[in-house]
Amino acid sequence: MITAFLSSMMFYMVCTFPLYIVARVVYVKWRRVHLNLVRELLLALFSLYAIAISSQTIIPHWSIGVDSETGKLFVDMHLRQYKSYNFVPFSTIEMYFVGVGDTASQWSLISVYNLAGNVILFVPIGLFVPLLWQRWRTWLGILMVAIAVPFFIEFIQYFIGRSSDVDDLILNAVGIMWGYFVYKLFAAILSIKR
Question: What is residue 134's DSSP assignment?
């Protein structure tokens, strides 16, 4: 399961990163931006991360191939047949902790993946955003990011045939805030050493 997600992420990153490089070079030359190597590296890493997360959250699943009967090339978008919506805060999280029916009080690997994954996968936003953009370095600024980014993802998922869950929004926001706390910790350590 995790390897499928990682291989899908890698596919999107490998395919789109050259486009990022070209777009960035054009932007830098057009705007005559002074290059800071560390910032450019951070921006490139953040862009790869954003592509990876987008590939798993807001880009519909699709397949490409050749039809064996007709020999014609096809591209097919797969809207998931099973989709669910949860607009009640903490109900999915509670279900993962206490279980339902026969699974009551049993942790499953899926529960761990969903809870931890929804938090951990969003920690980099809390790190990268304040590193790259000074205006988002405040508590209120990053809180706005922590609400807006997951809300955008869940909103889009609602319309592209994927499950949409307010608890995912909550867990994603927690992950972004954890990343921000890590950023603040490193910033404090670096300022102490100076």
Answer: G
